[in-house]
Amino acid sequence: MKKSLKYLPLFLCIVLVFSLLSGCSKNTPSTSSANDKIKVGALFELTGQVASYGTSEYNAVKLYIDDVNKNGGLLGKQIELLKTDNKSASDESINQATKLIVQDKVVAILGPATTGATKAASSIAMDKKVPLITPSGTSLDVTVDPNTNKVKSEIFRACYTDPYQGKVMGEFAAKDLKAKNAILYIDDKSDYSKGLAQSFKEQFEKLGGKIIDKEAYVANDQDFKSALTKIKGLNADVIFVPGYYQDTAKIVRQAREMGINTPFLGGDGWDSPDLVKIAGASALNNVYYSNHFISSDPDKTVQDFIQKYKAAYGVEPDAFAALGYDSAGMLVQAIKNANSADPAKITDALSKLQNFKGVTGSITIDKQHNPIKQTVIIELKDGKQILKKKISAK
Amino acid sequence: MKQVLKNRLIIFAGLIAFYGIIQALISFNFLNDYYVVNIILMGINVILAVSLNLINGFTGQFSIGHAGFMAIGAYSSAIITYKLGLPFPLAILIGGISAGIVGILIGIPSLRLKGDYLAITTLGFGEIIRVIFLNTEYVGGASGLSGIPKYTNWTWVFWLSVITVVLIRNFVNSSYGRCCIAIREDEVAAESMGINTTNYKTLAFALGAFFAGIGGSLYAHNFYIIQPENFGFMKSFDILTMVVLGGLGSITGSVLSAILLTFVYAVLQDYAALRMVIYSLLLIIVMLFRPEGLMGTKEFSFKKLLNRRAAKNELTVN
Amino acid sequence: MKTFIEQLINGLSLGSIYALIALGYTMVYGIMKLINFAHGDIYMVGAFTGFFASTTLHLGFIPSLLLAMLVSTIFGVTIERIAYRPLRGKSKISILITAIGVSLFLENSGIILFTPRTRTYPQIFKQHVYSLLNGYVTISNQQIVIFVVSIIMMVGLQFIIYKTKIGKAMRAVSLDPDAAKLMGVNVDNTVSFTFAIGSALAAVAGVLVGIYYNSIDPLMGIMPGLKAFIAAVLGGIGIIPGAMVGGLLMGVIEAMVSGYGSSLYRDGVAFALLIIILIIKPAGLFGKNIREKV
Predict the structure, then answer these.
(1) What CDD domains does the database record attribute to this sequence (chain B) (predicted)?
(2) What pTM was computed for the model?
């Protein structure tokens, strides 16, 4: 017994040394460079199911930050953007947010693009008191804890919430289009889609409309003809499809091919240069959707952004890119206002942000950390965007 | 006999020491949160890999729906703590038991099938479980449950993975486990020796599912949010990869490869899509050069080392 | 009734595509007893090749299709040579893991090379909608093309397998590779050929999907791949007509579930159906139950 125990301390020592080594080897932050750079984390969906949204947003964020760096940086320092990928998964978001905050010591995080991933990452951000701005996490409970109804102090967003957008479209359908009955055709796997549909329904029914049918599809489907065949027989006044353009473009195209000429309504997920490419110009008539901005807006900020984005990536920016760009803009503005790169001070400055001039309008952060800004309703005629209505910030 | 006891004591002391050291490092902030997240992930993956190894490696039943059981454990335990406010240990137990029950229910019809058919059936069941959660509003449908309290820590993960490994090892070395191995080697022969193959297969399946449920419970209470998407067939493949890489039928192999793969994943994190390309290449290369996995069916054991030394000591005494 | 017939047509077009992918799965399985999980990604490669052929090279429908088939074939054969051949005769599960690895590799290389954006397929030929039975049912020319191409492919495949020498070799290898080897069949070449044909068919499916739904992305192969595999199992894996019937059945069932139920349960129903069929008839619809000999 004694003899066999002889080796125990040795074993323990080995374990100790080993763990210390592994702990220390990576634990030396490059202090010299940390002083002359402001580190910002970019946590986006770069692979996996929703990689296209995350990539758009990351590209726009990078564009903005590169611009700031080219023009002399911020507070006299360069910004270092740390790119991480959450694989479109909530568990990976936690992992990466932890890495950015604990390991890389970032002062703020931009991203993720989707509600679920944002909720996951925000648990860490709140825990460590580092501000996080999601460009497109639209669900209400991203910034407000549903259990306590308290505002999550470090979490902000650059987009409006699902209920707000649904309400706008519900009102538009009932008042402007004089619709009496509507069909909801939703992406049943997405919070965004469900949230929009819910508030559209509430507002539409409040104004005397009736929802006559509710259909569902699953994101990344190819064939929507089955459900559309059913919808065709119902002859509704409007069809509300709150979804993302990859799907809605196919839906509207297949619907028009089948001879469904009913107006289609949607939310900002519809906005993409690819919408016309996928759906075809002829299918895009009688389509209305709410959005953050319209690319034909003569405003200098909008046109500059579109030009820069095109020059850098060779494609037209979509709504995700615009929101990503603004989230970076909000952060830079907040750091300027705070005159400090201290996470707590940035958080404070963000919550007081007023009239920041972004691509998606003038942004003021409200008590629930949602931006108050304009909404535009875009009508499509032969695939061309026409400004149907501008609803200013309430 | 005394030697056996002695060896066990040594191993136990070693475990306690290892646990204590890591715990101390965490407490004194030598290992920051990022390491802790990954260490916990390693522990959860160890539990998942070892439990799948019992089904695939020891009993030879080709299952690729392990994430489904994990999902059941995750969801049921989250309901216990988050919805009903009951204590965490109970949630872990319920998570394991409900996954085990589903394992039995799934096992009885599907274990009549063999090989690839069984594989695709288990994959199907895993997906069906996911679709059921997707359509259940009570657990949040597609958006899942968020706001689950974070109870999982190094202590829970470490001791539960130790218990999992010990129990499964003892099961494999028991007469039941030997029957399972007999089924793997030759089902027809096993049956003719009077082994009730269906019963043993179901038993292994249920036991594997039970531990996967426990892994799922730990997972749910570590990540704040669970969504049906987290438990798709890619997750099942991940677990399967760990098992095969470690060696089918080697518990220590599963432990090592679960730790190793989690580590590789963490190291490659900075490279987005490139990471997955590197990961997949590694997978292919390892399989090409060591198709039987890192450990094959061998076990790495302290006991052999200790016994060898004990034998040497006795020689010198005489 | 009208809706039912329209749903049936939708289901059959979707089903033909599943059937084309399922054929590749089934052939490879029949000959090597391997579930080639990367097959769905070969279909993605075919779709992207077709896309670049018609956009950057401005080729017409037939040349694009042939080019896509060629590129996918090269991919399929290369993958078999590099990743599967060394593992032949080794444990089934390790070869499956390799297949999963190859699949991940193709998907993520696709993301790096093509960016994860959804691409829009060019309109290779204009959409026409024909009314049958004076407007009672509509069918589009694309649906007709899908049917025609699929049927040509399937008939061609049957011809190759039952009327040519290489087809005979394929059947022999699938029955008993060792005996086939002893009879002078070159097993390696036969397996390569099988992969070539299977991949070419997947490429056809990819191009057709691009034309029919006109959007493609690097991850497009995951779900159809899985569904096609289920279709192959449904019909009895390793059996050619089984894969066709299984594919068509799968498409029709999906269309019916989304048309008369909810799309959310669609994937669940597909799997549930598979499990029920397997439990009642473990070798699939067309499979024979072979008793294990001791």
Answers:
(1) TM_PBP1_LivM_like (cd06581)
(2) 0.86
